[in-house]
Design a protein that fits this description.
With 125 residues, the protein is mostly helical. The protein is 53% helix and 0% strand.
């Protein structure tokens, strides 16, 4: 798990985005590096492992999109799973966490796609 954590933090720092250190602090103090996912990667640290795999898949198939945007979208797409459920989708909670931390470049539309039904998406993750 430490390899996954170190790799994620290195990728995020390499983005150079303003506010990224506050987000990394949140990740380290939340359940991001500890919790599993529902249905897949249920093991300890599964959420972070899954997020890294999504990032790697996006990077391989992004077709020239900026690497820092791919990092933000891939690594933070499930960030909302670290917050208490409140009736909204975890995509919206992801955006809210980033904005609350002062991360000004939260890609609302990309992170918010999680509110679509599973049938409406054809992504391998």
């Amino acid at each position: 798990m430490n390899d996954v954590k170190e790799r994620i933090i290195a990728i995020l720092r390499a983005t150079g985005r303003p506010g990224i250190e506050a987000v990394i602090g949140y990740l380290e103090n939340s359940s991001y590096f500890k919790r599993g996912c529902y249905g897949h990667h249920k093991e300890y640290g599964g959420l972070a492992k899954h997020s890294l795999e999504v990032y790697e898949h996006m990077l391989a198939h992004a077709g020239g999109l900026p690497a820092d945007s791919i990092a933000i979208a891939g690594l933070f797409h499930d960030l909302g799973k670290t917050a208490r459920r409140d009736g909204r989708g975890h995509g919206q909670r992801s955006v809210d966490i980033l904005e609350r931390l002062g991360f000004e470049t939260a890609p609302r539309q990309v992170l918010g796609f999680h509110n679509l039904s599973a049938q409406a998406r054809s992504f391998p993750w």
